[in-house]
Write a structure and sequence with these properties.
The complex is a heterodimer of chains A (about 260) and B (about 140). With about 260 residues, chain A is an alpha+beta fold. Chain A folds into two domains: about 190 residues, Jelly Rolls, CATH 2.60.120; about 45 residues, no CATH class. Chain A is built from eight helices and eleven strands. In chain A, the strands form two sheets. In chain A, strands 1, 2, 3, 4, 9 and 11 form a six-stranded antiparallel β-sheet that branches. A three-stranded antiparallel β-sheet of chain A has the order 8-5-10, with no helix packed on it. The longest helix of chain A has 18 residues. The N and C termini of chain A lie far apart (about 45 Å). Chain B is an alpha+beta fold. Chain B folds into two domains: about 45 residues, no CATH class; about 80 residues, no CATH class. A four-stranded antiparallel β-sheet of chain B has the order 2-1-5-3. In chain B, a hairpin with an 8-residue loop joins strand 1 and strand 2. The chains are: A alpha+beta (about 260), B alpha+beta (about 140). Strand 7 of chain A pairs antiparallel with strand 2 of chain B, so a sheet runs across the interface.
Chain lengths: ~260, ~140
């Protein structure tokens, strides 16, 4: 079990609910990630996108997901008894890779609540010219299809996930994302896994404060806005965020949990 | 100038047909006025244009031309698109000021359902002809 200090705070969980992503820096040193990268390349035997099973083929990857910082974040969002889905992939986008279109993870059922998370691990440094993963924060609650998403090239709030080796990107399963074109001379390596709940939230599983359901804290959801949202979207998303926040407490959100203090 | 002549010829041809069908009306004179004022043939379609048509899809927060652009697709960019690209226009109105013409507006469509949000549906389609005098 991770030390309690690695679990997320109220603010961390709130920000994840709103933006749909959270980035963790594992506690291992850079040398560890370089070894993992080499192990992955060896296991893949030169294939860029081999079939599922990379975590099973490269046991050292288990250490990444067992790292207290990664485990603490996953536990905070999925509950203590979460599990890894057996579908695990590595993507090695070579120099000159053309990128792919915006999409969501395929699924037959989408939920606002974080019942499943997509986790990207980057064992090597990623720069903007290496074809980084792109994400569009706050899009995880929009109901659409991948065919619709492919029509967009760019969003004003898109983010390129770049950084030092070892970064772990934890995303709401439905967050809009894509792999971009690799203009560098290096390949870009990433491991994709899915983690999921085994049961509905009953109590908060993060470092919850005694004020987490206080109207003052709930108001902080009402002051946030996604850059691409219009006013109607913003109000709807604020309701959804509060519904998810209460759901993670094992409770059901009602308007009067927030309104009495602020509506005359 | 060639565009202007082609537009006038297209207008004359269409007008003759309408005269034969007795459907020529004041609207057709308005079309002619528009051609004279803009040196364009907005109703005659692509055949009168030379060069390559470039399309720009702008997705706005709301369905009007001064609304903020939140996503875009440019037919001249690579497909799939490159990693990052700054927005060229912040509104449809600013694109119009730089020589783009509107081909399609979002229309009066109910874009989403109560209680949820959807894809970005307020889509304006604009065109520009590479080498166009207006650009």
């Amino acid at each position: 079990m991770p030390a309690k200090e690695y679990r997320l705070s109220d603010e961390d969980v709130r920000d994840f609910i709103i933006s749909g992503f959270h980035i963790v820096e594992p506690t291992m040193d850079t040398g560890f990630h370089a070894e993992v990268a080499a192990d992955i390349q060896k296991a893949n035997e030169g294939q860029a996108n081999p079939r599922s099973g990379i975590v099973q083929s490269v046991p050292s990857l288990q250490q990444v997901y067992a790292d207290p910082a990664v485990h603490g974040a996953l536990e905070s969002l999925l509950g203590a008894d979460y599990e890894m889905h057996p579908y695990t992939l590595s993507h090695c986008n070579p120099a000159g890779y053309h990128g792919i279109y915006w999409h969501q993870g395929s699924t037959r059922e989408r939920t606002y609540e974080p019942t499943r998370l997509m986790v990207f691990y980057f064992p090597e440094d990623i720069t903007t010219d290496m074809g980084p993963s792109m994400i569009a924060p706050g899009t995880q609650y929009r109901k659409t299809t991948n065919a619709e998403l492919a029509r967009y090239q760019h969003f004003t709030n898109e983010i390129a996930v770049v950084g030092k080796a070892g970064a772990v990107l934890i995303m709401h399963y439905d967050l809009w994302h894509r792999g971009s074109a690799n203009h560098s001379a290096q390949s870009r390596l990433m491991v994709k896994t899915v983690f999921q709940r085994t049961q509905k939230a009953k109590i908060p599983s993060w470092n919850v404060s005694k004020d987490s359901l206080n109207p003052d804290f709930l108001t902080t959801f009402r002051t946030r806005r996604i850059l691409i949202d219009n006013e109607t979207d913003a109000y709807r998303h604020q309701d959804i965020w509060l519904e998810v926040w209460f759901w993670l407490h094992g409770k059901t959100y009602r308007d009067d949990d927030w309104f009495p203090k602020y509506i005359p | 100038m060639n565009d202007f002549k082609a537009a006038i010829r297209a207008w004359v041809g269409q007008s003759r047909l309408k005269l034969e069908q007795q459907s020529f009306a004041d609207f057709d004179l308005q079309v002619l006025e528009h051609i004279v004022e803009t040196s364009k043939a907005p109703y005659s379609g692509a055949p009168s244009r030379a060069g390559v048509q470039r399309l720009l899809f702008l997705y706005c927060k709301e369905p009007y031309v001064h609304s903020e652009v939140v996503a875009w697709t440019d037919s001249s960019l690579s497909d799939p698109p490159a990693s990052m690209s700054p927005a060229t226009y912040t509104t449809v109105a600013s694109a119009l000021q730089h020589g783009w013409s509107v081909l399609q507006t979002p229309g009066n469509v109910i874009a989403d359902t109560e209680g949820s949000t959807t894809a970005l549906t307020y889509e304006f389609v604009l065109e520009k002809w590479e080498g166009d005098d207006a650009s």
